[in-house]
Amino acid sequence: MIEQDLNDALIWIERPYEEGAVELLEQIVPDVEPTRATLTITALGLYEASIDGAKVGEAMLAPGYTYYPHDLRYQSYDVTSMLHPGSHLCVLLAQGWYCGRFGCDNKTQLYGSAPSVAWLLDIEGEDGSVHRLTSADDSVRAKVSPYDYAGLYDGEIYWAEGASEKRPQTPEVVQPSRSACHLPDNLVASRTEVRLHETIDPISVTEHGQVTILDFGQNMAAVIEIDPTLVSSDCITIRHGEILDEDGNLYTRNLRRAKATIVYHKGSEHEIWRPRFTYMGFRFVELSGSAYRPGMLRARPIHTSMDQTGRFSSGHEGLNRLYMNQIWSQRSNYVGIPTDCPQRDERQGYTGDAHVFALTASYNYDVRAFMNEFLCDIRMTQLDNSEGYVGPIAPATGPTGVGFITMQGWGSADTIIPWMLYEQYGDDSALRMQYPSMLAHTDCELAHAGEGGLWLAPNLGDWLAPGVDVAWAAQHSAPVSNAFLIRDLDLTARAARYLGNSADAKRLEAAAARCRAAYRDSFLTPDGRMTDGYQGALVLALNYVIEQGPAWEATFSQLVEDVETHGLRTGFFSTEHLLGLLADNGEARLAYDLLLQDGCPGWMYQVRKGATTIWERWDAIRPDGSVNEDQTSEQSSENMVSFNHYAFGSVGAFLYRHILGIAPIEPGYRRVRIEPRVDRRLGHAQGEFRSVAGDIRVSWDLERSEATLDVELPVSGEVLVPDGSRHAVGAGSHHFTFEFEPADRLQ
Q1: 616 catalytically annotated
Q2: What contacts 548, CB < 8 A, 6 or more positions away?
């Protein structure tokens, strides 16, 4: 088996640990003219393979980040056209997530003491014989690495060929040996790849004292490519940042301990060079050491390669910019795993961020393979938690158990994402694969809720709701914690019913009923209003807990009153649902008011302040232009102000599902409902969603003498026209005209 063969070929360079070290290994191919050649390769760490100087494949940061104690992926490449008798196979091996500096604590050697690599090069000759070379062969030799340093957070220090005579110290060469490690049991072929994408030139170049500031016009996760023929000195330094300060300097305080710096020593190379084992989150770069020449530096966005499936535009330019902001935040944070941010010393797989954005993500891109790999990360991480709890980060970088009960709601990714995949794509494989994990997680939640059916441990609550102190949120977090407890029970019970596990279903349904009753008794007055009725708690109660009836109506009225009085006050968890909840219940105008108002907090506020991605905080830049930081404490908010965080971009689903009105009647869009919520402030809107059933297109226009709605469907379904009429339709194109007057009470 290939898995065992890779294990047998695992090698490392055994030397004292040095953070950021990169090894270079070389193997010369024998004199065989191949008719077919395949390179299969993996690493505990990061690798990049090349043959005769040409990179093998398009994957970046390979083999990808997984929970190494139990899980690893490998890649196979067809290298037939690259290979010739006497070719040189070179492999660079870096520490990456495996043992480089990583995680909130900035620790090294999180998963192991040193990186290891394994490869199999199968060469088929004209006579049908197969000659296999492996990394464990005696023909593999270590060479001098061109790197002084490579790390995910700090960047790279690289010496180009021909610059070595100026190098202060040449790294010692130690020959490889069999690794003392073993590859994880779950060793599988990767289904996704992180790749480089389009090339972006700077939109402005400004001399600023002794440095040059380049503005690429777009915040992104990317690397800078360098054209060495345009570098006029022996060494250049490139620093990265998302914004500039008030004096025009590169702002880097929000990077915390990440240096985000590239040092490039020029040699005799003429080929374009780029970092291999890092990436940065930035819009601006600071160049020092050389004058800038046009074409010298270009940005290359980096993200998991996925097919784009959604498009949206309207007559409101601010809304169009918001749409692109959430697209760019998805690209920037879908880098192997769904990260929180791409710039600071974090970039981890936060489960809560992932599930609130999952529906939006599934409209934007085909995320099936990406999300299935992330669900595997969740399952593998869960294996090291005897209680079965799913924590806030996968792959985990530390303890995974109920020590993280203060982050109740994050682990609901384990139940929410599989259901999203089933409903959006009609594929139940994720439900089937994840079901034991879902069951273990909900059983752990129930155990901590106890006989009373309430989760009472302090919690982070509706994270980063505006105007809410973290301590206050923790003291008032119980409605949020228990809403997710009930949501997890409901979804796992539904999965049990669907999969035919009736005993589990009955038990979970009974538990959900008990927890609902406890919720009503603890958090609702007799007339149905919430006693601790802050906006996020109201939204989650209405979506996850309270069943339709007088209590639901009373709580919804309470929500409307709160929105009218206070405006937008939702955090990470509740923002996803707020606008749709209003629009679906006679308050579409109010939903649009929130969407389009340009005061802080608000989406248009961020757009007005020049955002090109979604911010972590509603007020990451305050109305006076200052950055939301507090310099009085080591644990101050300056440690948490990202300008590229997709959680509040969950509003993207509202654009598809409510403004365009595209939703499935049956899983996988086997039947489709089109129910657009229109507003004159947009004038018109149009978009499409490439579902697994076919392309769905919707456009509406309120700017003509007659309002029009045009729909194109690949399957049958129903169309609810804004005038209130309902039409059963078949596959094909459909045109409707209507008279439009806002129906809700705030017209």
Answers
A1: yes
A2: none
